[in-house]
Structure formats: C-alpha cells, structure tokens
C-alpha cells in the first residue's frame, strides 16, 4: 500500500510539472540574421520565449507557417529549408534544397511547401510534413538559361504563381497531381518583375516591374487569364531617383478597395483602385519606400524606407491620404508586422539591435525587445491568409 501511495504521489507531481496545452495563435518569430538564429516570441506577452540557433545564412530570410501555426518553415539565403517546431522550440527538419533562396509559400490545403530560388533558378515543392521533394520546376526560359524566381505566392487549389525576373515572364504551377505539375506561362509581361502580390481574395496577381514604370496584373478569375499592364508610365516626365533597396510586395498592401504600392525610383506611395486598376492618388513620403503595409482593418498604412532614410517609419491615414505620424524607432528599420487584429505593430531595427512594439492608436512604444540584428518579423496569423 505504501508503495502504491508513493507511485500515485509521483504521478500527480509529474502531472503538475508538465506544461499544459497551449495554442499558437499569439506566437511568432523574429529573424536574428547576424548569427543565424530564430527568436520565438509571444505577441500577447511581448516577450521572447526562446532562441533557436543553427539556421545558417539568414540574410533576406523569409518564413511561412504550417496550417496549424505550430511550425515555421524558414527559407535561408544559403538555400536551406528548415522546419522549426514552435511548441518544442527546436529544429525538426533541415534540408539543403538550393544554393540561393529568397522565400517560399504554403499551399492552400497546407500539404505542400514551395521554395523560390535564385540559384539554380526555379521552384522546388516539398511535402510539408516530411520535406520530401515532390516537384522540381526549373525556370528555364531558353535552352540552358534559367531565371531567378521572385514573387512566389500560393493560389486557391494546389497552385503556386511566381515571376521570372530575367525572362519577363509569370508562371502558374498547378500541383493538383504533385508529381506531374502543369505549367501556364505568360510571356512579355514587362521588364524585370521584381516581386509580386496576390490580393487577399486570391483573384489578382500583381507583379512590380523594375525595368520600367508600371506593373503587370493578371485576373485569375477570368475564363482565360491574360496579363494587363497597369499604372504604365507612372513616373513619366520625372527623373527617377536611385534605388538603394528593392521594394517588397505582398497581400498586405491592400486596404479595402485600394492597393497601396511603393513607386520604384520615387519617394511616393501609389494608390490604386482595385475595381478599375487606375491610379487614384499618390502620397509623398520621406524616402524610397520598401514595405508599404496596411493595418489589418485598413485604416492605416505604414511605410519604411531604404538608405539613407531607413531610421524612419511613416503612417498614412487611408481616409485623408495624409502622413499623420513619423516615427524613429531605431537605425535600419528592416521590417514591420502587425498583431493579428492590428492593435500593435512590431518594428525591427537591425543596427539598433532591437524590436519595438508600438501601439497603432497612440503611437506609444509598448515594449522594446533586445535582439541581435533583427530583420524579418513573422506571426502565425499568416497561416490563415492567402498570399502570405
């Protein structure tokens, strides 16, 4: 009897010490690019929960999440793809899939994860559970010539869309049968598509053009989708300014019926009506925009900038279309990420070695997290959004 009692006490003690079940909806990650580490954060408590080292070259690293928000897929610039379990806070799988990679996407059903690669140019698609290679799609646009791939995004169905920077093309890969991908190619879309977005409803794919003024747009709901040029010649008659850092595009740039887009070579944010795809305004800002990101409710748009204005962030009120606030959260602002409902924004300042959490109503700094050369900030709420 005595032994049975001791065993019961031991079991009860073990139960008390074991961590209880925890959701992942308020978790996220911050890239610490200088030392190849991923910081796992809690967006409600505004704290760093753990740091996961050993992820290689994380310059320009990007992250997408598994359907349940429990795992982060990290795409390193060195071509590695790493799956990190956010609950155990450990690396689960890591493969070397290319020589130079700049991001990826997860299929709508969560079963496939795709990487976009510069070297060798193309995309590779993996089983999201095992990271086993499912499909290798070279971006070969002429015999022996491969393009760097940019602007990869998921589409409804097991489809991915992406742009070929060196070939002036956009491709759609349908992986309904993963081992037999079907490709749809759009040629002569415009010079040097550098990045792209899918609107939150999955209907429109828009690629920014580095080699000319304008963007390429495809209506994916059309019976026979074609490429349409929009905002052609938006800089006509003006001397283009130097571009020190390529802007980025994603579905975050859409607020209500308008898209807010960085102008290449201009210190402006362009406002586009997504019904007519005509320009309806342009907002002068402090420098060359890099990220132009709408708060989840669409009331504000936050903008950061390339060198030499990269210590500033500006806030545009989408009703008045005026800059209503300029912040200086630290040198080398590289990224911003809103909490799921937008009451706060996390801002990484690489050279200040910190992430600032800012209240989006009062603009007060709510918390400051010391991190080593932070760059990308990614929250698990992305798992439920198309084009993220």
Q: Ranges with pLDDT <50 over ≥5 residues?
A: 6-20
Q: What topology, given as strand order, has the largest sheet?
A: 3-2-1-34
- Gyration radius, to the nearest Å? 22 Å
Q: If helices are DSSP runs of H or I spanning 4 or more residues, what is the number of helices?
A: 1
Topology, number of strands: 34
Distance between the termini: 59 Å
Beta-strand share of residues: over 45%
The structural class is: mainly beta
Percent of residues in helices: under 10%
Question: What does this molecule look like?
Answer:
There is one protein chain. The chain has 388 residues and is mainly beta. Helix content is 4%, strand content 49%. It is built from 1 helix and 34 strands. Strand 16 and strand 17 form a beta hairpin. The radius of gyration is 22 Å and the shape is globular. The termini are far apart.
Concise account of the structure shown:
The protein has one helix spanning 2-17, and strands at 27-32, 37-42, 47-52, 62-65, 71-75, 80-85, 90-96, 100-106, 112-119, 122-127, 133-138, 140-142, 145-146, 149-155, 159-164, 169-174, 182-186, 193-198, 204-209, 215-219, 227-230, 254-255, 258-262, 268-273, 279-284, 289-294, 300-305, 313-317, 322-327, 333-338, 344-349, 354-359, 365-370, 374-379. It is mainly beta and 388 residues long.
Based on the model shown, name its key terms.
388 residues, mainly beta, four-stranded antiparallel sheet, 4% helix
In terms of topology, how is this protein built?
Blueprint: H1 2-17, E1 27-32, E2 37-42, E3 47-52, E4 62-65, E5 71-75, E6 80-85, E7 90-96, E8 100-106, E9 112-119, E10 122-127, E11 133-138, E12 140-142, E13 145-146, E14 149-155, E15 159-164, E16 169-174, E17 182-186, E18 193-198, E19 204-209, E20 215-219, E21 227-230, E22 254-255, E23 258-262, E24 268-273, E25 279-284, E26 289-294, E27 300-305, E28 313-317, E29 322-327, E30 333-338, E31 344-349, E32 354-359, E33 365-370, E34 374-379
Antiparallel strand pairs: 1-2, 1-34, 2-3, 4-5, 5-6, 6-7, 8-9, 9-10, 10-11, 12-13, 14-15, 15-16, 16-17, 18-19, 19-20, 20-21, 22-23, 23-24, 24-25, 26-27, 27-28, 28-29, 30-31, 31-32, 32-33
């Amino acid at each position: 009897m005595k032994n049975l009692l001791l065993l019961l006490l031991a079991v009860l003690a073990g139960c008390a010490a074991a961590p209880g079940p925890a959701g992942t909806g308020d978790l996220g990650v911050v890239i610490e690019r200088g030392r190849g580490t991923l910081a796992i954060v809690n967006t409600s408590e505004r704290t760093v929960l753990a740091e996961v080292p050993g992820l290689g070259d994380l310059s320009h690293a990007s992250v997408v999440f598994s359907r349940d928000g429990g795992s982060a897929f990290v795409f390193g610039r060195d071509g590695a793809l790493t799956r990190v379990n956010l609950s155990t806070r450990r690396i689960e799988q890591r493969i070397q899939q290319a020589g130079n990679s700049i991001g990826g996407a997860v299929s709508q059903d969560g079963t496939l994860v795709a990487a976009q690669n510069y070297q060798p140019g193309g995309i590779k698609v993996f089983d999201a559970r095992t990271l086993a290679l499912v499909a290798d799609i070279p971006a070969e646009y002429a015999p022996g010539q491969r393009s760097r791939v940019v602007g990869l995004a998921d589409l409804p169905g097991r489809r991915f869309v992406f742009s070929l920077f060196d070939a002036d093309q956009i491709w759609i890969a349908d992986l309904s049968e993963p081992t037999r991908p079907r490709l749809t190619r759009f040629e002569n879309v415009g010079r040097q598509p550098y990045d792209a977005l899918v609107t939150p409803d999955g209907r429109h794919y828009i690629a920014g053009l580095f080699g000319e003024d304008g963007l390429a747009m495809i209506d994916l709901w059309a019976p026979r989708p074609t490429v349409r040029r929009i905002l052609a010649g938006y800089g006509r008659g003006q001397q283009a300014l130097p571009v020190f850092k390529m802007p980025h595009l994603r579905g975050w740039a859409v607020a209500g019926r308008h898209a807010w887009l960085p102008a290449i070579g201009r210190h402006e944010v362009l406002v586009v009506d997504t019904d007519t795809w005509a320009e309806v305004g342009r907002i002068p800002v402090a420098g060359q925009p890099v990220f132009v990101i709408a708060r989840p409710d669409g009331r504000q748009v936050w903008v950061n900038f390339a060198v030499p204005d990269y210590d500033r962030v500006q806030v545009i009120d989408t009703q008045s279309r005026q800059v209503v606030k300029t912040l200086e959260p630290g040198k080398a602002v590289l990224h911003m990420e809103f909490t799921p409902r937008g009451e706060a924004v996390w801002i990484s300042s690489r050279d200040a070695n910190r992430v600032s959490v800012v209240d989006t109503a009062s603009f007060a700094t709510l918390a400051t997290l010391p991190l080593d050369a932070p760059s990308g900030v990614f929250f698990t709420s992305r798992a439920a959004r198309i084009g993220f």
